[in-house]
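Q: How would the structure tokens look for this protein?
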Amino acid sequence: MTHFNSQEFSRYARHIQLGDIGVDGQRKLKSAHVLIVGCGGLGAPVSLYLAAAGVGQLTLVDGDHVELSNLQRQVIFTEADIGLSKAICAQTRLKALNSHIKVNTASERLTVDNAERLIQAADLVIDCTDNFATRYLINDVCKAHSKSWIYASVYQFSGQCALFTPEQTCFRCVFPKPPSNAPDCNSHGVLGVLPGLLGTLQATEAIKYLTGIASGIANALLLIEADTMQMQKIQLRPDENCPCCDKDFSFNSALADYQPPCKTARNENDKYSLTVEAFYQHQHNKEVVLLDVRDKNEHDAFNLGGLHVPLTELKQRLDELPSNKKIVAYCQSGVRSSAAAQLLRQANLDAMSVNGGIAEIISQ
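A: Here is the predicted structure in token form.
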């Protein structure tokens, strides 16, 4: 009796030849089920490499649709996928890569309503998200059900990666509370290849975990600076006050920690927010001044006209803005412009923000 047919043997021969993996390790990969939360910059390399490695069952969770701005780093998608479900497009690509594996999809966010069901069914969870709320949800459900998970995050040129196991330090030990000023890639950018680097590290650790090879980042946080090519590993220690590490811990779906912030500031019920349609009506009105509050590099690359004052300088440059006209602020996603409009109104200026920012305007 053989464990693989001839095609599988040929496909996985390079793994089988590795003494630390071999037939037994490849068989473990074939029987494994990995839950990948997020199909974006991190999820793309993770899913591609795990599919290529022969992980028998992958479940992809992502409620987003492919956008043009994704293609700078989310290499699993093409221009033809714009507007389509990320999870479904990724499934199609992975099945084309390896027809021997099973790929499940959930075209929705990971929430308190589905997290326990999806995580309990998996042997390993990989966090490919971009917000603390979902990471807390993954951490807490994994802790409650004794599951391991692999974390990664990226920002500009910096990345982090860690393997969290049930018996060791958890994510809440490291980050008891989400930072109030957590960096946002929508506003500050990310080097396109950086998610590929961190996602490949996640896939590497996943293969090692599933095949029984010792991890180098279990109970440790790996820090990577791509601009200087420096790596640092920090050993983690449990927090004796961590609620998740208490022996009586159980998952509580009512925690407010599990509600992720919006990626873009879209709030049609806010009387100070403009829809894209309303923006076009205001754009050429002589009584309206457009204000780009993005950084100089973003403004120089592309803008919608009007004045330019970065949000970080706005408070000091209020005297440059007209007090007798309506100011319509815009940015990339609507987050910075919403903050700018609020600051301007506090200075008694008539100001509004464009819902969804330039990304929303371009997409329509």
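The chain has a mean pLDDT of 92.

The first strand starts at residue 33 and ends at 37.

Upvote if useful.
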